[in-house]
């Protein structure tokens, strides 16, 4: 009788253990499915708990408000579209810090859309604060981010809310820390001019390291317009790489790598809240447009005279994207329009 009772007890224990095991497996499956379905909110929650304090502290080093401008009030949730001037600084050694990249960005937090309007660095325009016309990228050499911001606002006819300046040298380490980025290089890029730094970027690689990415944005032996478009491509590739789930834990380290190479008048809390807001929505989509022009020489110096119709169209884009009442499906798409225009031109050719 005792032996039978012990057997029943052992069977009961085994049944309980099996039941616990099955329940545990079921819970793990549910959690796993939930983690997959809600991986973005979970990642953001982890960022809030473990990383946001570190990131905010590191961003304090990059916060650099412009003289004479009051910091904008930080709202709990940025609903209205806003603009920012993105400056890519390529300073080597003791050279003047000219802005090789000038991109006027319109950011729409509500629908996670970003419009990038690129302005060629040799564009001939009035330099605000100097009372003279010159290459638009010289504004930074003359008066830093403040003069660049004022000059671009005057050139386009629309205000600039914020600026963000990044030295390309700092991005080299960031790209390496990300394990490289994807770049659509279909033909080898060879920098071979006798007065230029020599390098070759091989086509068709799945990922490109920091030095290759830096060479990609610095290459200048085709045209200023193509170089400007490459800067858009590079920024888009960098953003897409950083948005991947497995890069979230690296954010504090990436901030360290940027160090003094990143300056902005956006407050750290604004950047963090905006990033979380856009990531909580659908994946950010980036549209690009480049203002074209005609090369000319004035007093022996090469400039680009921007096409008036391109500047006007840039204004239409800004108005359309800055209007918070514009529905997502009604946003002007410059890339689609450019493709349609090219197809129309091809159809007209005999």
UniProtKB/TrEMBL annotation:
The record ties this protein, via InterPro entries, to:
LytR/CpsA/Psr_CW_biosynth (IPR050922), LytR_CpsA_psr (IPR004474)
Where is there biased composition of kind Low complexity?
Answer: 333-350
The segment(s) forming the Cell envelope-related transcriptional attenuator domain are 98-243
Gene3D superfamilies in the cross-refs: LCP protein (3.40.630.190)
**What superkingdom heads the lineage?**
Bacteria
Residue numbers spanned by region Disordered: 328-350
Identify its protein family.
Belongs to the LytR/CpsA/Psr (LCP) family.
NCBIfam families to which the protein is assigned, alphabetical: lytR_cpsA_psr
Q: What name does UniProt use for this protein?
A: LytR family transcriptional regulator
**What phylogenetic lineage does the species belong to?**
Bacteria, Bacillati, Bacillota, Bacilli, Bacillales
